[in-house]
Structures are given as C-alpha cells and as structure tokens.
Amino acid sequence: MSFLRLRFLIAALIVGGYPFVQTLAQQPAGPDAIVRRMTEDVLRTVQSDKDLQAGDRQKVLALAEQKVLPFIDFEEATRLAVGRAWNPATEAQREALVHGFRSMLVRIYSSAIGAYRGQTLRVLPLKTDPAATDVLVRNQYLQSGRPPVAVDYSMRKTQSGWKIYDITVEGVSLVLTYRSEFSQVVSQSGVDGLIKRLADKNAPVVPAR
Hints:
The chain is α+β, with helices and mostly antiparallel strands. The chain is built from eight helices and five strands.
C-alpha cells in the first residue's frame, strides 16, 4: 500500500463516533462540529486500546462498523470513483460496485489503524453559507516532530445527516485516485470486470501450506 493511500485510510478511520450518533441525530450540528466531536472520541478509543494499536482485526473491523461507516456516503463515493461508467450501469451493478468498494476500504482499514498513534486533529473554522448542503471541512493532522498534514473532508447533507463522500490529503483526492484505477479496469473489462476486480481484492487470503 502506498504512503498516500495509508494517509487516506488513517484520515477515514479517525472520523467516527458511534456514541454520538443518536445525540447528533437529535441535535442540529454543523459538519465541522461533527468531525471535531467524533474525532476526539475515536482517538481516545484507539489510544487506550493496545489491541487496536496492534491491529487486532476483529476489533478494528468492529471499530470501522461502529465509528466510521455510519458517516460515509459510500454510494456517492463509489459513483464519483467509478465516473462515467456509473450512469449506464444497471441497478444490480451499482449495488455490487458499492458493496465491493465499501468492503475494499474496510479491509484495508484493518491494516492501517496502528499507524496514527499519537496523532491529534485540528479542525479549522468552517466558513460557508449556513444553508449550504455540500461543504469542505478542512483539518490538520498533527504529530510531534512532523509538519501538519492537511486533510479535507468533502461532506454533503443527506436525509440522514451530514455524510463524507471524499477525503483529500495534501491536495490529492481519494475518489480521484481510485477513479484512475477503476477507469482503466472498466475500459478493459467493462463494469462487470470492475465488480470482479473488487471481489478478487476482497477475497480472503488463504495461507500457503
């Protein structure tokens, strides 16, 4: 895995906060407030759990399911990553693409969790129209002895609240990074070929005997 993609995954993992789901659903909160409050909770969880820091797969997957996935708009992220091939795809193909993309990210999350021990997040003030439904929440990830890393979350307001659909690290978009790879697969093998590629990536690795 490239360093840049690891950064994307670390940024995604730090977003979450299952204990706050009901509270935030009941109280109107801006996207920057959601990111800030949930980040603090997730960082505390990881920094106090040695199993998570060591990459315990079951705990990491549980963390992702509880604290990350509820706040990611996987359909929108997949649509943008797939690009032009999304519109002509059938409903069944779209569902398979979303499932495959989601599973791929969760699978990679499990190998990235231990890499952000000691990091903190600074959420920059959000300057936007209060009526906006699509915003960019700018952040800086801080670690002692290293320069800040700019990480921005593209978020949109849905019927179930604010959701993240893209992450940009140091000016490079996660969605656009995958779009290049997905576009090449689609051009060679079509949408079904991309679905198969995602399924192959998500298949469990069988240990060699």
